Amino acid sequence: MNKILREILSTGLYLLGVVCITYLVIMYVVQLTNVDGESMEPTLQDKNKIFVEKISYRFNDPKRFDIIVFPVDYKKDTFYIKRIIGLPGETIQIGEDGTIYINGEALVEAYGKEVIRAENRGIAADPIVIGWNEYFVMGDNRNDSTDSRFVQVGNIHRDEIIGRAWVRVWPLSDFEVIAHE
């Protein structure tokens, strides 16, 4: 009887350890997230599943062109996936021709799917000064993305960032480490 009780206790402690480690990994290391919508095309497609790593931003600041995940304020358990365009302290503006200007200089990048139409410049039609603890983010599908150009999203505070897109795991045919630069 003692042997059976010890075995049950041992198995219970083992399972408790597995649950605790799983919880710690999900809370502090990686998170599985679904891509919902076309705002990050062509980089990420609707229905992709990606792992978000949560460790690097504990030791380093986010960089321009990183793809980040952050919560949507008005939807519980919903997250946005966007690319960092503007960094703390910079001034960003989108010209009538769709060019993104950072501190008055045209941004050189290859991520935007298309030229931003004038009606999609949002609040970035006027210069936006990014706060010391904020980031300006945009989807790669510039004309079909709700991002920092719009009041409902605005600049993203550093402490809102959950992590950095790391690996696309679904569909399996598109499995890859996600490139940021």
Walk me through the structure.
With 181 residues, the protein is of the alpha+beta class. The chain has one domain (2-177): Ribbon (Umud Fragment, subunit A). Helix content is 17%, strand content 28%. The protein is built from two helices and twelve strands. It has helices spanning 2-28, 56-59; strands at residues 30-34, 49-53, 67-71, 79-86, 91-94, 100-102, 105-106, 128-129, 134-138, 156-157, 163-170, 176-177. The strands form two sheets. Strands 1, 2, 3, 4, 9, 10, 11 and 12 form an eight-stranded antiparallel sheet that branches. The chain is elongated, with a radius of gyration of 20 Å. The N and C termini lie far apart (62 Å). The model has no long low-confidence stretch (mean pLDDT 82).
Architecture blueprint of SSEs:
Elements: H1 2-28, E1 30-34, E2 49-53, H2 56-59, E3 67-71, E4 79-86, E5 91-94, E6 100-102, E7 105-106, E8 128-129, E9 134-138, E10 156-157, E11 163-170, E12 176-177
Antiparallel strand pairs: 1-2, 2-11, 3-4, 3-11, 4-9, 5-6, 5-8, 6-7, 9-10, 11-12
Global Rg: 20 Å
Shape: elongated
- The CATH homologous superfamily is named Umud Fragment, subunit A
CATH architecture: Ribbon
- How many structural domains in the coordinates? 1
What is the number of E strands? 12
Q: What name does the CATH topology carry?
A: Umud Fragment, subunit A
CATH class: Mainly Beta
Strand content: 25-35%
Q: How does the helix and strand content classify structurally?
A: alpha+beta
Distance between the termini: 62 Å
Order of helices and strands: HEEHEEEEEEEEEE
Mean pLDDT: 82
What is the helix tally? 2
| Helix amount | 10-25%
